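Give me the fold.
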Amino acid sequence: MDYEPFAPEALRHATETVFGVASVPIFDLSDTDLVIDFGSDCLGTGLSPVEHARQLSAARDAGQESGRTARLVYVGPRLDETASHADEWLAPKPGTEGLVALAIAHAAVESDGSGGEIGAAASAITRQLSGFGADAVAAKAEVSADAIRRIGAALA
């Protein structure tokens, strides 16, 4: 068996596990407020770097009808193409990106006071994420707890 670092098998398997469809997903960033890339380098070696760059550029266009602009946050240990174009780059210790993702989710649930979709399931989600507070994860990942909270609040 050959190892191909850029092969989409893990992504295909994750899509099948979550959505029941064994295919590589198509991401559309053109109508978004916030993109958080966890180490995939979507603008460098991602599934479709040119298309993602075009879509992100469209989402960041302040002259568009909605008047809003997208923000790009990159969570990855090295300065790659996506990190260099991100509005904010968190450089966690290698291998801790998943912990940072869980801490951002925890912070999003904590900061959501709207009673919206997150609010409806907040207690169950909070229990699942209870061990992933910003301060604990920040110490393990060597990133700022304030940055985790800020990104979590933006996500909420």
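The beta strands are 34-38, 71-75, 88-90.
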